[in-house]
Amino acid sequence: GKVNVAKRTITVSAGSYKVSKVYDKTLAAGTASGSLAVSGILQGDDVSVSAIPGAYADPNVGGQAQMELPLTLEGDTLGNYVLADTRVAVPCEITPKPIEPVLEITGSYSYTGQAIIPALTVTADGEVLRASDYEAILSDNVNAGTAAVKVIPRNGGNYTWSSAVTGTFSISKVDYPYAKTAELSARYGNEAVFDLASLLPEG
Prior knowledge:
Elements: E1 8-13, E2 18-22, E3 31-33, E4 37-39, E5 48-51, E6 66-74, E7 81-83, E8 87-95, E9 97-98, E10 102-106, E11 109-110, E12 119-124, E13 127-128, E14 134-139, E15 145-153, E16 159-160, E17 165-172, E18 184-185, E19 193-194
Parallel strand pairs: 1-7, 2-8, 9-16, 11-17
Antiparallel strand pairs: 1-4, 2-3, 5-6, 6-8, 10-12, 12-13, 14-15, 15-17, 18-19
């Protein structure tokens, strides 16, 4: 009679396998490193399990931490085996793209008594970065004079650079719109009277 020999089951987990790539604005697949953890294959059998990285679901840094990949059996004795699961979940990442950004500050600004936030643009290779990709730190931006801007990569953003990009802008003085002089009069032996009200704004 015939004897039915059941196929041997192979189990697969992520092991040290990982998919990664540098941010490129697309969903294109990354590059695999490490190896899958495979169990159930008998020593000496010519069979192996492979997984090919697939497309990302999110193109941004930090947008996706895991992806599922289809598994494939290969080798001369693959007919003796069956996969416990035809897909495996593996970790994945997109790392920030290193760039050399350029900071441009536009507009003219006058003293208002409040902190002034200038119009600024950060570009790299002719492309304007989104505000979510950097953090602008301002200093000396209240009083008339020279204010400073420092731009650093935002944590979790799509781009990175080694040194902060800096720039300056001017805050001009404004004319005081109220009276600046007052008269002082007194007679000998009497107290002098100085009216400060003329120096204060109305209201």
